[in-house]
Amino acid sequence: MLNPAASVSGVKEQVIEGKTPEITLDQTRKLLASIKVLRQVKNKQGEVVEEVALVVGLRDRAILSTMRFTACRAGAVAKLRLGDFQHDGEQYVLRFREKGGKSREIPVRLELQRDILAYLKAAGIEEDGKDKPLFRSAVGRTKKLTEKPLTTERICELVKRRLKDAGLPERISPHSFRVAAITDLLTKGEKLEDVQYLAGHSEPRTTGLYDRRKKQVTRGIVERISV
Questions:
Q1: CA 2/CA 82 separation, integer angstroms
Q2: Beta strands 136-139 and 48-53: pairing type?
Q3: What is the CA radius of gyration of the chain?
Q4: What angle do CA 84, 194, 217 make, to 5 degrees?
Q5: pLDDT (tens digit, 0 to 9) for every residue of the chain, 227 residues total?
């Protein structure tokens, strides 16, 4: 027996904004500031005689800075190799491997360059083979790096752990950095096609889903409702 309702077309839901929340600039600053990258060594008199680099802290800060300043996905960070961080004669660039086999180079701004170079120096892997992982896993509580890459899952876990340690909302995720970067650039008037390329999107409509400017306008309307 035929279902008479089967031939009736339902109303298609039009998605105008993604569900991932953005991370604010203040939250990002708080998060990065909460990561310890140095440990002070004191003598018997309590005087600081040495500062030791904490390689896991430097690694995590470099990962967060990469997502902050390139709008890349956690999966793209996990795929980075040492050879993907290179100097083109004028500046450092990062070469990302994205969905669908796409590859693109993103210039590295000075803050990110500083963080990656500090991590590489502390890890002692600057001279390793170009095919070796850029961001590597650590062995339990020893905090020593292995030669294995951090997986996408582990990167998501470390982001959540760092957010918790900094006292920031649990709803924030690695994708929140991508949302924040895209929204920030569009707010500053950057061309949609340029932001689209940075994000690695094939269509401008997809980039628009990351734009949270609409949410700010909606909040303003809500605040004007009489109480």
A1: 61
A2: unpaired
A3: 21
A4: 120
A5: 555 545 545 444 444 345 788 899 999 999 999 999 877 666 776 765 565 679 999 999 999 999 999 888 899 999 999 999 999 898 999 999 876 777 888 899 999 999 999 999 999 999 999 999 999 999 876 678 999 999 999 999 999 999 999 999 989 999 999 888 888 888 888 888 888 888 777 787 777 777 766 665 555 555 565 55
User: Is-contact 35 47, C-beta < 8 A?
Assistant: no
**Which domains, ranges and CATH numbers included, belong to the chain?**
19-216 (1.10.443.10)
Q: Which of 168, 185, 183, 175 is nearest to 67 (CA)?
A: 175
DSSP conformational letter for 45? T
- Select from 206, 200, 199, 156 the least CA-distant residue to 178: 199
Q: How far is Cα 224 from Cα 210, in angstroms, rounded to an integer?
A: 25
Residue-by-residue DSSP string for 130-149: TTSBSSEEEEGGGTEEEEEE
What are 169's strand-pairing partners? none
